[in-house]
């Protein structure tokens, strides 16, 4: 599961009338999937991220480094 430590951005789109899901760590991946509800967007986002990682691995392309944040306690 370590390979899935990537940011997943979920944002409401008035224009599309749904939640859009994107992965900023992957170049050219502004919006990858969507969902009518936030929960659906999360589910679709996880599926899309798994597929994206598998596609990189299948093609032999190196995965981008995941962005990290540091929470201050």
Count of DSSP-assigned helices = 1
The helix content, as a percent range, equals 25-40%
SS content category: alpha+beta
Count of distinct strands: 3
Low-confidence segments: none
Outline, from the CA principal axes? globular
Number of domains: 1
Mean pLDDT: 90
Query: What order do the helices and strands follow?
Result: EEEH
Major sheet: order of its strands? 1-2-3
Distance between the termini: 25 Å
Please outline the major beta sheet: 3 strands, antiparallel
Strand content: 15-25%
Q: What integer value in Å does the Rg equal?
A: 13 Å
Task: Describe the structure concisely for a colleague.
This protein is an alpha+beta fold. The protein is built from one helix and three strands; from the N terminus they run βββα.
Features:
73 residues; alpha+beta
Task: Tell me what the structure shows.
The chain is of the alpha+beta class. It is built from 1 helix and 3 strands. The protein has one helix at residues 38-59; strands at residues 9-13, 18-22, 33-35. The longest helix has 22 residues, at 38-59.
Secondary structure topology:
Blueprint: E1 9-13, E2 18-22, E3 33-35, H1 38-59
Antiparallel strand pairs: 1-2, 2-3
